[in-house]
Amino acid sequence: MSFLIEKASSELMLEPDELKEILQAYFEDAPQMLEQGRLAVGRQDWSSLAKNMHSLKGASYNLRLDRLGELASLAEQGNALTIANLTEVLQAIERELRNVETEIDEYFARRA
């Protein structure tokens, strides 16, 4: 598992079930931030893109979702990347969100 619940739980001083609740809220908000980022790219609104990706980056790093934080940090650069590269980064964020959410769901299903 690329995201270790026990380690994140310990570092954040939360019980796993408390972390689960916070992660559920994250996985409700993160796709919206990603979609807003996509829309901003379509408008070439680099300020909005940076704002959304900065929020996603911060939330990701705070929850120890480091790969998502790294990808959001890259997307935050906006027009420093080509549109094609930016699109690839946003697609990578989407894949990573799905993968991590699945890993977390499977972890808690095994604990039940």
Total strand segments: 0
> What's the SSE pattern?
HHHHH
Shape designation: elongated
Tell me the radius of gyration.
Answer: 15 Å
Low-confidence stretches: none
- Tell me the helix content: over 70%
Largest sheet: none
Task: Please write out the topology.
Blueprint: H1 5-12, H2 16-43, H3 46-62, H4 66-76, H5 83-111
Describe the structure.
This protein has helices at residues 5-12, 16-43, 46-62, 66-76, 83-111. By secondary structure, the protein is an all-alpha fold. It is 83% helix and 0% strand. The protein has five helices and no strands. The longest helix has 29 residues, at 83-111. The radius of gyration is 15 Å and the shape is elongated. The two termini are 18 Å apart.
Essential attributes:
112 residues, mainly alpha, elongated
Condensed summary:
With 112 residues, the protein is mainly α. The chain contains five helices and no strands.
